[in-house]
Amino acid sequence: MGEHQLDLPGKYFDTMIESNDIYGDAGAMQVRMEERGYLLFRDVLNKDTVMRARLQMMEALNDEGLLDENYPIIDGVAKDPSKGGFRGGSNRLTQAPAFVELVREGEVIKFFERFLGGEVRPYDYRWLRIAQPGKFTAMHYDVVYMGRGTKNLFTAWIPLGGVPIEHGALAVLEGSHKFERVKETYGQMDVDRDNFQGMFSTDPVEVVDRHGGQWKTTFYNAGDLLVFGMYTMHGSLTNLSNHFRLSSDTRYQLASEPIDERWIGENPKSHYAWGKEATPTPTAELRKVWGV
């Protein structure tokens, strides 16, 4: 993660705690979310749907010439890793029928209706990650990217197939949703309004040493579901394999609450400034304000 090779388990990293024991209990799930900042459920999504989505996406990547033909398509071994990365929005991959079924219908919607206690409104924009060999995602809060509506908004991170730790598994910083200083500074920013790239840090050790918490990760399997809120710090480990890591991180909220207009509609406008002329890394001035 970043420039660090971290021991698991150790001071800075440990294994995620599963929450299948309270999967049907909305009150208990709310309490545990408040305690830890995340909920990990094993084998609750339809594995067949997950693997059909993976295959449909791998076929698209193979048509683009990105996969090594010496391996089965479903394995996702990279031939040209330079063309991976973020594939959000509306495209052949995010319109794959099984993927739409996975994130817009079925068990994930039932879960959020139970968890949130009402009619659920998923964002229309669909996020897809084709994590490349040698790459990692820097640490961040989601709120800086989608904070204009309700803060009672949740990310569903879904591995599209098995994700061993060495394939760049997602990690969350347990307890980071209680970092009041960070929430009051960095957590109030907006990547479009503030012309800011969004990352908080690339150094997981420094974040723990300054603010506390402990990074948690795991070996994810098809059918797993990871849920966390807008103020849970997260990022990915470095993908040390020769495989693309496929995952989705879509957002869900109560239909009755305010929604960020950038992510809804037939053709969501998404970010209008982020990624264009934004500061690529936190400036010294920002880091001083944030206390990092």
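(ticket continues) Second input and output from the same batch:
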Amino acid sequence: MLILAFESSCDETAAAVVRNGREVLSDAILSQADMHAVYGGVVPEIASRKHVEAIAALTDRALTEAGVSKKEIDAVAVTYGPGLIGALLVGVNFAKSVACALGRPLIPVHHLRGHIAANYIAFPELEPPFIALCISGGNSLLADVRGYTDMSVIGATRDDAAGECFDKIARVLGLPYPGGKPMQDLAEGGDCTKYPLPRAKIADSEFDMSFSGLKTAAVNLVHNAEQKGETLDRSSLAASVAAAISEELVPRSVKAVQRCGYRTLAAAGGVAANKRIRYDLEKACRENGIQLYLPPLSLCGDNGAMIGCQGYYEYLAGTRADMSLNAYANLEI
């Protein structure tokens, strides 16, 4: 089965062709990161307009690279939430037009379900059930993946996402957007114990997280040093931030696996590319006898292949949408 998939939830426009959920024939992506870097973050209106400009050509490119014609496509899948509403609407409306023109089924896909499905592409042997740690610029949560389309959130951030925390601290340090990679590079050689930063504990939920206090503490450290004319050890601060974020994510993930009686943990999302988090996850899982799946860096960020993969399983489960399909900025997994 060939699925043509679209992703446009933030600042990457993507179109991909996926066969039977696990074989990626093409994955065309156009990133707007350099364009938004001057603003220090994604400007929704600009992102939406650039999706409009790019999506048709990317579709042609994806089909050409896959070596298939439009008539060979069996279904169309698209991210319909969560994300930037204007950006999502571009992908949703384009996918509806393609599905209508080809007379093919339209499959709505949750963005985070797509990130989880990226692991199926990288690891053909992976099957539910397992715990998924989803960490990105807009989301940080633990999902109980009981089946390919049967999953629920068992813990999530109460405020900021881990990726947002990296981005905002990077900005006050004068680093470019997006901040994850520059923060990781800056942290090389830094002392992760030099700056004591808060690790949140949520009284009524052991699996919920909070990153707003950490973000505020790090930002205040930078501002106080500037106001007092003190020299800030930027490398150690970056390392300390990465350690604090990792220590919120990793122990909760291990405990969630154990609590659910599973032996498998999968990471997903852009922040899953962070070296410190990957190292800590590998160490913790090895010590606790947990099988860990970490997607390659190319599948951590937003892409169309993951939507095509999850779209296949949604199709098998009977998930369909008609021409009334809408986009949603917030959407339960």
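Agent notes: The longest helix spans residues 234-260. The mean pLDDT is 96. Closing as not reproducible unless the customer responds.
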